[in-house]
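Service request form, structural biology core

Requester: graduate student, group of Dr. S.
Request type: structure prediction, single chain
Budget code: on file
Notes: please return the result as structure tokens.

Sequence provided:
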Amino acid sequence: MKKPLLILLFAAGAFCIQSCGPSTNNSADDSVEHAMEQNEQSMDRQETTIGVQDDNDSDFAVKAADSGLAEVNASEIAQQKAQDQRVKDFAAMMVQDHTKANEELKGIAANKNITLPTAPGEDHLSKISDLNSYTGADFDREYMDLMVDNHE
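Core staff response, request fulfilled:
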């Protein structure tokens, strides 16, 4: 059962390398860090319980969710700012695919009692902020470069 879960989580992570828009919540409490802390506390409390999530599973799930949220965010911005219609179409596909993958990951995480972030982490938000500073063909190029880098 763990192998299919890891494969599914890997696929979700590959689809979710980044997403979601910059959070309007600029508090020092990073959603990714918060999820990691919650999972550690959960593992500590349930240390002797059979079936508790593996530390590697929760770390992977949090990272995949972080990436997925960032993918959706960057792609939503690209749908609005891209100059080339092919880039806009690609961004729409990314939003659709990564939103679906994010929802599937949420279901798996809930079944395994894994807390996921609700917004991209600071690293992804910084990249999205940088991306948002570009316009026109420069934006298109930077967005596509970001997508390639994240999926590699």
